[in-house]
Amino acid sequence: MKYLIIPILFLLTIFTNSCDNSVEPTPPKTSGETTINTKIVNYKYTGFSFSQGGNIEYPNSNNITPDIIVLVQTNETGNILGVFFSSAGTLKSSFILIKQFNDANTDSAQVFFDNLTEVPDSNYMDLALPVKVNQIWAVKTIDDKFGKILILHTEAYADSSNPSSPTLFGEASFKWKYQPNGSMNF
Questions:
Q1: Angle ∠(42,33,143) on CA atoms, nearest 5
Q2: Which residues pair with 150 in a beta bridge?
Q3: Which residues pair with 172 in a beta bridge?
Q4: What is the spatial distance between Cα 124 and Cα 53, in angstroms, rounded to a whole number?
Q5: Cβ–Cβ < 8 Å for 142, 86
Q6: What is the Cα 125 distance to its own chain's centre?
Q7: φ/ψ of residue 101, rounded to 5
Q8: Are 43 and 58 in contact (CB under 8 A)?
């Protein structure tokens, strides 16, 4: 019996040492693709946070402010023109249009976005207005770091499901890349 216990202990030692139960912190995402919209649920809306690596509800219990929210642009007569971006909370110079390609140049826009290795450090505007497909924007985040986005899709309309109170709906999808060290280089 004692000769059987030694091999079992040996196997248990090997098995225990081969299992790594340590939990390393996951580094935040620095690139991806997302969609944000104007829909409000329980008095909260969804915005995008570069530092969180994705969409977040706002307001939230962690007091994290989104870097980008989407809004619907209308003219003085109420006609819908499209969508635009703003920072959440107070207006902050956060957006600069780097380049715009026409709708047929999706591949060219993607190549330009992928090869954009540096964004400017000045001349940012409070709003990204208007936001259109195949635009590349640089974004200065809430904590003064930098990101870049490629607009993939936009949509804006009046939701008339409640005829007595139509609401404006806007949505934007984009690819993004973030530089968490504060550099303007990607």
A1: 70
A2: 136, 175
A3: 36, 154
A4: 22
A5: no
A6: 18
A7: -115, 150
A8: no
Other Cβ atoms less than 10 A from the Cβ of 178: the count is 24
d(CA 109, CA 133): 9
Residue 167: its pLDDT value, please?
93
Q: Which of 65, 71, 62 is nearest to 144 (CA)?
A: 65
Q: What are the backbone dihedrals phi and psi of residue 53, each rounded to the nearest 5 degrees, phi first?
A: 70, 30
Nearest residue to 90 via CA among 45, 142, 138: 142
Relative to beta strand 146-159, strand 135-140 is antiparallel
pTM: 0.84
Taking phi first (over 0 means left), then psi (-120 to 50 degrees means alpha), and beta for anything else, what does residue 60 get?
beta
- 130 and 82 Cβ atoms separated by less than 8 Å: yes
83 in Cβ contact with 154 (< 8 Å):
yes
- What are the pLDDT tens digits along the chain (186 aa)? 555 454 444 444 444 444 555 566 777 799 999 999 999 999 999 999 999 999 999 999 999 999 999 999 999 999 999 999 999 988 999 999 999 999 788 899 999 999 999 999 999 999 999 999 999 999 999 999 999 999 999 999 999 888 888 899 999 999 999 999 999 999
Q: How far is Cα 68 from Cα 177, in angstroms, rounded to an integer?
A: 13
Q: Tokens 């030692």, residue?
A: 13
Looking at residue 11, its pLDDT comes to: 41
